Amino acid sequence: MEHLVDHMRTSFHSIHEPACGICGKHCRSFESLREHLIGPLPKVECARIFSTRGCILCLTILDSPNSQRVHRRACQQPNATNGLVYCMGNLGIHDELRIDNTRGKGPQVIALSCKMVGGGSDGSMDLCARICLVDEQENIVFYAYVKPHVPVTNYRFETTGMRPEYLRDAMPLRQVQRKIQDFMCNGEPVWKIRSRGGRARILVGHGLDHELECMGMEYPTVMIRYDIHTGGIQDPYEDCVATMRLYMRMRSQNHKTESYPLANDPQNRNNFASWRESELQNMTPEELLDISRSDFYCWCLDFKGYA
Predict the structure, then answer these.
(1) Which residues make Cβ contacts (< 8 Å) with residue 221, sequence separation at least 6?
(2) Are 164 and 239 in contact (CB under 8 A)?
Protein backbone atom coordinates (compact mmCIF):
# COMPACT_ATOMS: atom_id res chain seq x y z
CA MET A 1 0.00 0.00 0.00
CA GLU A 2 2.82 2.41 0.90
CA HIS A 3 4.45 1.83 -2.49
CA LEU A 4 1.18 2.53 -4.28
CA VAL A 5 0.67 5.77 -2.36
CA ASP A 6 4.27 6.84 -3.11
CA HIS A 7 3.66 6.08 -6.77
CA MET A 8 0.50 8.21 -6.74
CA ARG A 9 2.43 11.06 -5.19
CA THR A 10 4.94 11.11 -8.03
CA SER A 11 2.83 9.98 -10.99
CA PHE A 12 0.16 12.66 -10.76
CA HIS A 13 1.59 15.44 -12.89
CA SER A 14 0.70 19.09 -12.55
CA ILE A 15 0.24 21.16 -15.69
CA HIS A 16 2.96 23.39 -14.23
CA GLU A 17 5.66 20.72 -14.25
CA PRO A 18 8.38 21.06 -16.91
CA ALA A 19 7.78 18.60 -19.73
CA CYS A 20 9.79 17.59 -22.78
CA GLY A 21 8.29 19.19 -25.89
CA ILE A 22 9.28 16.12 -27.92
CA CYS A 23 8.35 12.97 -25.97
CA GLY A 24 6.12 14.59 -23.33
CA LYS A 25 8.13 13.26 -20.36
CA HIS A 26 7.38 15.18 -17.13
CA CYS A 27 10.36 16.29 -15.04
CA ARG A 28 10.61 17.43 -11.44
CA SER A 29 12.63 20.53 -12.29
CA PHE A 30 14.08 22.44 -15.23
CA GLU A 31 17.49 21.02 -14.33
CA SER A 32 16.20 17.45 -14.77
CA LEU A 33 14.56 18.48 -18.06
CA ARG A 34 17.89 19.93 -19.17
CA GLU A 35 19.58 16.62 -18.26
CA HIS A 36 16.94 14.78 -20.29
CA LEU A 37 17.64 16.92 -23.37
CA ILE A 38 21.33 17.84 -23.27
CA GLY A 39 22.82 16.07 -20.24
CA PRO A 40 25.60 13.46 -20.24
CA LEU A 41 23.06 10.69 -20.94
CA PRO A 42 20.14 12.34 -22.77
CA LYS A 43 17.32 10.55 -24.52
CA VAL A 44 18.85 10.08 -27.96
CA GLU A 45 15.88 11.04 -30.16
CA CYS A 46 14.97 14.04 -28.01
CA ALA A 47 18.58 15.24 -28.00
CA ARG A 48 18.77 14.93 -31.79
CA ILE A 49 15.65 17.05 -32.37
CA PHE A 50 16.59 19.52 -29.64
CA SER A 51 20.00 20.14 -31.22
CA THR A 52 18.31 21.62 -34.33
CA ARG A 53 15.07 23.08 -32.97
CA GLY A 54 15.56 23.64 -29.23
CA CYS A 55 16.36 26.80 -27.24
CA ILE A 56 19.21 26.08 -24.83
CA LEU A 57 18.05 28.88 -22.52
CA CYS A 58 14.35 28.14 -21.93
CA LEU A 59 14.33 24.56 -23.35
CA THR A 60 11.43 25.32 -25.71
CA ILE A 61 11.10 23.20 -28.89
CA LEU A 62 10.45 25.34 -31.98
CA ASP A 63 8.82 24.40 -35.28
CA SER A 64 11.92 24.77 -37.42
CA PRO A 65 15.62 25.69 -37.24
CA ASN A 66 14.77 29.17 -38.55
CA SER A 67 12.16 29.66 -35.81
CA GLN A 68 14.79 28.54 -33.31
CA ARG A 69 17.24 31.23 -34.47
CA VAL A 70 14.59 33.96 -34.25
CA HIS A 71 13.47 32.76 -30.82
CA ARG A 72 17.00 32.48 -29.47
CA ARG A 73 17.77 36.11 -30.34
CA ALA A 74 14.66 37.21 -28.44
CA CYS A 75 15.39 34.84 -25.55
CA GLN A 76 19.00 35.99 -25.12
CA GLN A 77 19.67 37.71 -21.81
CA PRO A 78 21.02 41.24 -22.44
CA ASN A 79 24.10 42.29 -20.49
CA ALA A 80 23.74 44.29 -17.31
CA THR A 81 24.31 48.03 -17.44
CA ASN A 82 27.64 48.81 -19.10
CA GLY A 83 30.26 50.26 -16.80
CA LEU A 84 28.43 49.27 -13.63
CA VAL A 85 31.02 46.65 -12.69
CA TYR A 86 33.72 49.30 -12.72
CA CYS A 87 31.61 51.65 -10.61
CA MET A 88 31.04 48.91 -8.08
CA GLY A 89 34.77 48.54 -7.57
CA ASN A 90 34.85 51.87 -5.73
CA LEU A 91 31.41 51.73 -4.14
CA GLY A 92 31.25 51.68 -0.36
CA ILE A 93 27.80 51.16 1.15
CA HIS A 94 24.61 51.66 -0.79
CA ASP A 95 21.65 51.17 1.54
CA GLU A 96 18.01 51.52 0.44
CA LEU A 97 16.63 48.88 2.79
CA ARG A 98 13.20 50.00 3.97
CA ILE A 99 10.20 48.34 5.61
CA ASP A 100 7.17 48.66 3.30
CA ASN A 101 3.75 48.32 4.93
CA THR A 102 1.75 48.96 1.75
CA ARG A 103 -0.24 46.13 0.19
CA GLY A 104 0.75 45.62 -3.41
CA LYS A 105 -0.35 43.15 -6.08
CA GLY A 106 1.66 40.30 -4.68
CA PRO A 107 4.90 39.95 -2.72
CA GLN A 108 7.98 41.99 -3.57
CA VAL A 109 10.90 40.07 -5.04
CA ILE A 110 14.56 40.56 -4.17
CA ALA A 111 17.64 38.92 -5.72
CA LEU A 112 20.66 38.34 -3.48
CA SER A 113 24.25 37.45 -4.27
CA CYS A 114 27.36 37.20 -2.12
CA LYS A 115 31.04 36.94 -2.95
CA MET A 116 33.21 34.86 -0.69
CA VAL A 117 36.77 35.17 0.52
CA GLY A 118 38.63 32.42 2.38
CA GLY A 119 39.17 31.82 6.07
CA GLY A 120 40.78 29.14 8.18
CA SER A 121 44.35 27.85 8.08
CA ASP A 122 44.10 26.77 4.43
CA GLY A 123 41.74 29.53 3.23
CA SER A 124 39.03 27.08 2.26
CA MET A 125 36.35 28.38 4.64
CA ASP A 126 33.86 30.55 2.73
CA LEU A 127 33.35 33.98 4.31
CA CYS A 128 30.89 36.53 2.95
CA ALA A 129 32.85 39.67 2.05
CA ARG A 130 30.61 41.45 -0.47
CA ILE A 131 26.85 41.40 -0.89
CA CYS A 132 24.32 42.87 -3.29
CA LEU A 133 20.52 42.96 -3.34
CA VAL A 134 18.46 44.21 -6.30
CA ASP A 135 14.72 44.61 -6.82
CA GLU A 136 12.53 43.58 -9.78
CA GLN A 137 13.51 46.73 -11.70
CA GLU A 138 17.21 45.81 -11.26
CA ASN A 139 17.76 48.75 -8.91
CA ILE A 140 20.34 48.23 -6.17
CA VAL A 141 18.67 48.23 -2.77
CA PHE A 142 21.78 47.20 -0.83
CA TYR A 143 25.44 46.87 -1.72
CA ALA A 144 28.26 46.65 0.78
CA TYR A 145 31.58 45.11 1.67
CA VAL A 146 31.24 42.87 4.71
CA LYS A 147 33.75 42.34 7.49
CA PRO A 148 33.74 38.59 8.29
CA HIS A 149 33.56 37.37 11.87
CA VAL A 150 36.87 35.47 11.54
CA PRO A 151 40.20 36.59 10.00
CA VAL A 152 40.53 36.39 6.21
CA THR A 153 43.44 34.22 5.10
CA ASN A 154 42.77 34.16 1.34
CA TYR A 155 41.19 37.07 -0.51
CA ARG A 156 40.85 34.99 -3.71
CA PHE A 157 41.72 38.08 -5.71
CA GLU A 158 41.68 36.28 -9.07
CA THR A 159 37.96 35.59 -8.79
CA THR A 160 36.73 38.19 -6.28
CA GLY A 161 38.89 41.25 -6.97
CA MET A 162 38.99 41.73 -3.20
CA ARG A 163 41.89 43.42 -1.38
CA PRO A 164 42.50 43.83 2.38
CA GLU A 165 41.81 47.57 2.26
CA TYR A 166 38.28 46.95 0.96
CA LEU A 167 37.32 45.28 4.24
CA ARG A 168 39.16 47.62 6.60
CA ASP A 169 36.09 49.81 7.28
CA ALA A 170 33.47 47.33 6.05
CA MET A 171 30.14 46.76 7.81
CA PRO A 172 30.32 43.91 10.36
CA LEU A 173 28.64 40.67 9.33
CA ARG A 174 26.22 40.66 12.25
CA GLN A 175 24.95 44.14 11.33
CA VAL A 176 24.52 43.16 7.67
CA GLN A 177 22.66 40.01 8.68
CA ARG A 178 20.25 41.92 10.92
CA LYS A 179 19.53 44.62 8.32
CA ILE A 180 18.84 42.12 5.52
CA GLN A 181 16.77 39.82 7.73
CA ASP A 182 14.55 42.74 8.81
CA PHE A 183 14.22 43.93 5.22
CA MET A 184 13.30 40.51 3.80
CA CYS A 185 10.77 39.79 6.59
CA ASN A 186 9.36 43.29 5.99
CA GLY A 187 8.02 43.74 9.49
CA GLU A 188 6.80 40.16 10.01
CA PRO A 189 8.28 37.73 12.55
CA VAL A 190 10.04 34.84 10.81
CA TRP A 191 7.79 32.28 12.48
CA LYS A 192 4.65 34.00 11.11
CA ILE A 193 5.76 34.20 7.48
CA ARG A 194 3.50 32.27 5.11
CA SER A 195 3.73 31.62 1.39
CA ARG A 196 0.73 33.79 0.47
CA GLY A 197 -0.99 36.84 1.90
CA GLY A 198 1.88 38.19 4.00
CA ARG A 199 4.31 41.09 3.64
CA ALA A 200 7.56 39.10 3.53
CA ARG A 201 9.58 39.35 0.32
CA ILE A 202 10.44 36.52 -2.08
CA LEU A 203 14.19 35.83 -2.24
CA VAL A 204 15.78 34.61 -5.49
CA GLY A 205 19.32 33.57 -6.29
CA HIS A 206 21.72 30.73 -6.96
CA GLY A 207 23.12 28.59 -4.14
CA LEU A 208 21.14 30.53 -1.55
CA ASP A 209 21.32 27.76 1.02
CA HIS A 210 25.09 28.14 1.18
CA GLU A 211 25.06 31.94 1.05
CA LEU A 212 22.47 32.24 3.82
CA GLU A 213 24.47 29.79 5.91
CA CYS A 214 27.65 31.84 5.45
CA MET A 215 25.74 34.93 6.54
CA GLY A 216 24.23 33.15 9.55
CA MET A 217 20.72 33.90 8.27
CA GLU A 218 17.55 31.83 8.27
CA TYR A 219 14.68 32.45 5.90
CA PRO A 220 11.54 30.35 5.28
CA THR A 221 11.95 27.92 2.40
CA VAL A 222 8.47 28.78 1.08
CA MET A 223 9.75 32.29 0.24
CA ILE A 224 12.95 31.20 -1.54
CA ARG A 225 13.27 30.62 -5.27
CA TYR A 226 16.74 29.15 -5.57
CA ASP A 227 18.92 27.00 -7.82
CA ILE A 228 18.66 29.64 -10.54
CA HIS A 229 21.94 28.91 -12.30
CA THR A 230 23.63 31.86 -14.00
CA GLY A 231 26.89 30.36 -15.18
CA GLY A 232 29.37 31.49 -12.54
CA ILE A 233 29.15 35.29 -12.88
CA GLN A 234 31.72 36.88 -10.57
CA ASP A 235 30.24 40.34 -10.00
CA PRO A 236 27.42 40.24 -7.41
CA TYR A 237 25.33 42.90 -9.18
CA GLU A 238 25.44 41.08 -12.50
CA ASP A 239 24.69 37.84 -10.67
CA CYS A 240 21.60 39.42 -9.07
CA VAL A 241 20.41 40.84 -12.38
CA ALA A 242 20.82 37.51 -14.16
CA THR A 243 18.94 35.56 -11.49
CA MET A 244 16.18 38.18 -11.35
CA ARG A 245 15.71 38.11 -15.12
CA LEU A 246 15.53 34.32 -15.12
CA TYR A 247 13.02 34.34 -12.28
CA MET A 248 10.85 36.96 -14.00
CA ARG A 249 10.90 34.93 -17.21
CA MET A 250 9.79 31.77 -15.44
CA ARG A 251 7.17 33.64 -13.43
CA SER A 252 5.66 35.06 -16.62
CA GLN A 253 4.69 31.60 -17.90
CA ASN A 254 0.98 31.54 -18.63
CA HIS A 255 -0.26 28.18 -17.37
CA LYS A 256 -3.97 27.61 -17.05
CA THR A 257 -5.35 27.50 -13.52
CA GLU A 258 -5.85 24.01 -12.11
CA SER A 259 -9.29 23.29 -10.70
CA TYR A 260 -8.03 21.98 -7.35
CA PRO A 261 -5.85 23.45 -4.58
CA LEU A 262 -2.09 22.98 -4.43
CA ALA A 263 -0.61 20.02 -2.58
CA ASN A 264 0.67 22.32 0.15
CA ASP A 265 -2.69 24.07 0.62
CA PRO A 266 -4.54 23.23 3.87
CA GLN A 267 -7.19 21.18 2.07
CA ASN A 268 -4.59 18.69 0.84
CA ARG A 269 -2.00 18.45 3.59
CA ASN A 270 -3.54 15.37 5.20
CA ASN A 271 -4.50 13.43 2.08
CA PHE A 272 -2.01 10.70 2.97
CA ALA A 273 -1.93 10.99 6.75
CA SER A 274 -1.21 7.76 8.64
CA TRP A 275 -4.64 7.75 10.28
CA ARG A 276 -6.24 7.42 6.84
CA GLU A 277 -4.36 4.25 5.92
CA SER A 278 -7.36 1.93 6.27
CA GLU A 279 -9.48 4.30 4.18
CA LEU A 280 -6.86 4.40 1.47
CA GLN A 281 -6.56 0.61 1.42
CA ASN A 282 -10.21 0.35 0.42
CA MET A 283 -9.89 2.79 -2.48
CA THR A 284 -9.47 1.76 -6.09
CA PRO A 285 -6.43 3.05 -8.03
CA GLU A 286 -8.78 5.42 -9.88
CA GLU A 287 -10.03 6.87 -6.59
CA LEU A 288 -6.49 7.27 -5.30
CA LEU A 289 -5.44 9.04 -8.47
CA ASP A 290 -8.45 11.35 -8.17
CA ILE A 291 -7.31 12.65 -4.78
CA SER A 292 -3.62 12.77 -5.73
CA ARG A 293 -1.93 16.15 -6.03
CA SER A 294 1.42 17.09 -7.47
CA ASP A 295 3.66 18.86 -4.98
CA PHE A 296 5.40 20.79 -7.76
CA TYR A 297 5.19 24.54 -7.19
CA CYS A 298 5.47 26.75 -10.26
CA TRP A 299 6.74 30.31 -9.90
CA CYS A 300 3.92 31.53 -12.13
CA LEU A 301 1.70 30.98 -9.07
CA ASP A 302 3.57 33.58 -7.01
CA PHE A 303 1.26 36.38 -8.12
CA LYS A 304 -1.89 34.47 -9.04
CA GLY A 305 -4.83 35.12 -6.75
CA TYR A 306 -3.81 38.71 -5.99
CA ALA A 307 -6.19 41.50 -7.03
Answers:
(1) none
(2) no
Neighbouring CB atoms inside 10 A of 72's CB total 16
CA distance 129 to 115: 6
User: 55 falls in which pLDDT band (50, 70, 90)?
Assistant: confident
Render pLDDT for 115-149 as a digit per residue (tens, 0 to 9).
999 999 998 999 999 999 999 998 999 999 999 99
Burial zone of 122 (CB within 10 Å; 0-12 exposed, 13-18 middle, 19+ buried): exposed
As a whole number of angstroms, the distance between CA 152 and CA 119 comes to 5
Cα–Cα distance between 77 and 249 in angstroms, integer? 10
- Name the region of 288 (left: φ>0; alpha: ψ -120 to 50; beta: rest): alpha
- Strand spans (E) along 148-279: 152-154, 171-172, 202-204, 224-225
